[in-house]
Structures are given as structure tokens and as C-alpha cells.
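Title: Prediction job returns without error message
Component: structure pipeline
Severity: low
Priority: P3
Assignee: unassigned

Description:
Job completed but the reporter wants confirmation the result is attached to the right record. Sequence as submitted:
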Amino acid sequence: MRSSSSTAVKSLPLKRRLYFLLKLVCFVISVLIFCEFLIYYVVIFQCRWPEVKGGAHVDKKETSTSVLKAMILADTHLLGEIKGHWLDKLRREWQMERSFQTALWLLQPDIVFILGDVFDEGKWSLPQAWADDVRRFRKMFKHPVSTELVVIVGNHDIGFHYEMTTYKVNRFEKAFNFTSGKLITRKGINFVIVNSVALEGDGCAVCRTSEAKLVALSHKLNCSQQKQNHSDKRCTDVEKLPASEPILLQHYPLYRKSDAECTGEDSAPPEEKNIPFKEKYDVLSQEASQKLMWWFHPRLILSGHTHSACEVLHAGKIPEISVPSFSWRNRNNPSFIMGSITPTDFSLQKCFLPYESRVFTIYCAAGALLVILILAHFQLLTPPFYFAQRLISKHKAV
């Protein structure tokens, strides 16, 4: 009898320790699930599709069913095998995958545009590395049939102009069904896809082909917008497109001196705003920018490349939105644009992703709490009351 009772007493501390260990494991798992999974739902759930502004410009026939819900993001910069550390790859790709998949599930966009620099090392990638990068991209950005994904080329995908080759351009076009000068029309809305890297203006083979397609598309769109009683003879045999003014989608922004006039919490840091932009490197040249506006008279321009947000008004009437990077490797507060678009109007809203600094703070706070719980459990953490009591007793003894 005595032996059985003593065994029960000895097993009691063991059960308590196992129970305590189980609680710690549950605590750690809960923190991981929240920071690596649930936090994306908590943050993105707060985003709402903007309502298209009313007024004289909105056709009475336009209803909620004719509004196109477009999600726009840029500069994902999937790391490659040359400069990408495996841990950095794992972390950044998981963040982007969870953000994208959560946004698709909660927001259900009709179409998604990625404005270039999909890869970080596409300009250097050998065939096997390229195939691996494309496979990883398709896994991260998989989407249902109901959502269309349109990917636009950037300088990190095919190289800057001096690195760009026909082989790299064709490789990208084959992987993503991309064509410069391509028109995408959805619900009567015209989107013009531009290879901005090819707008160097030096007559290179890729540049000539790209510009020729843009000029031909410009002619079609201009003919489609003419009224029947003022039709041009040159438009007689031209295929008619929806008369909606186009939206330009490209990687490089149109020419601007710097980001000095850009505002907002996700604009460029103050120390970088006044740094002059270099034409054909940071932004398009003035000549190429003017050509695009002459050719298309767009009602909106969406671009990436700078990794920071900016809103610019060209010629006093054409808005351009520079979309920040979607990767936490490039900024602490990534975001994407939500656009409600009709043939005659549009409304844009920004949706921020979880701040990485806040996720790090949660991990630090959870780690500190975990240490305190462990110390308290093993009675290694003396409560302040008992500590003061011991000091008083020692003083009296002296």
C-alpha cells in the first residue's frame, strides 16, 4: 500500500510537468498560426472594394454587374538561385503566397494585374533556374478559373535595355502569354499592356516591334472612339473596339523629376524623395512618355518599379498611380490596389498587408512571455513581494 501511494506522489509532478509542457506547445503553435496564417485574414478582411463615383460621367446602364473588380500589385521580386538565400526565399515567398491567396478568397477579384519585376534574377537566369522560378511563381499565385491573371514584363524579368535580348523577351512571353502592345478588353474596358523596357527609342529590334504594335493599337482605339458622322476614311476597314478610353499598364513610370511631390505613409523615405530620377532607368524618357500619351490619351496609368507609392497628374488631367512593391523584402508595409472600374469611370482603394515590424513585435512579446512562464513554473522568478520580505528579514537579523 505504501509503495503504491509513494508512486502516485512521484508521478504527480511528472503529470504536472507534462501538462505544463503541453500548454507551452499550444501557446507556441497558437502564436505561429496567428502570425503566419490568421493575421492575413484579420488585416485583408478590413479592405473593401471602392464604389464607383456617381455623377454625370456614369452611364445609367452601368450597374454593379458591369463593374470590373481589378486587383493590381507590382514588384514581387521572387528570389533566384544566385543572390537568394534559402531562408529569405522561404520567408518572403510564404508571406506573398499567404497574402495573395487570402486576398483572392476574401475579395474575389475578376482580374489581377502584376506590373512587372515578377522575378529578381530573370535577367540572369539560365533555362533550368528560369523553369524553377516559373514553377514557384505558379504555385504561389495560383488562382481559380473565375479570376484572370495578367503578368506584365519588368526590367528584372528580361534585363534593362542593354541586357534585353529577343530570347529573354520570348521566354517571358511564352511563360506568361505576354505581348507588348496587347489589348485586353473586359466588360467594355480597354487595358493596354506595355513593355516599357522596350521604349528606349534607339530602334533596336525588340523596340521597333514593340512600338509598331503600340502604334497599330493606337490607331484602332482612336478609330473606335470617333463618332460615326465624323469617321475618318483611314478607319473604314479598322476593327471597332469598345469606345472606352484605355488604361495603360506598364512597369516603368512615365517621366517625372523625382518623388518629391509624392505623399503617404508608403511613399519613398524622406531622404530619397529629392533624388533626381534617371531617364530610361528609374522612369521612362520624356520622349517615350509623351508618345504614350499622344498615342492613347489614357484615362489612367498604372506602373511599378520604384517600390514606393506615388500619385502624379500628367498634362494636368491624366492620373498615374505608382504601385508599391508587394514584397516585404522591399518594404515594411507592402500593399496592393483595388480598383472598381467601368467603361467611363474608376475608383481605386489601397489595401495594406500586415506590417512586418508588427509581426516581429508579436513574436518578441510572445517570446518574452514564454520565458517568464518558464521561469515562474520552475520558481526561478522571485515575486517582488517575497523579494522585499527577504530583504526586511535580513535587515532585522543584522
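Comment from assignee: result matches the submitted record. The CA atoms of residues 155 and 280 lie 11 Å apart.
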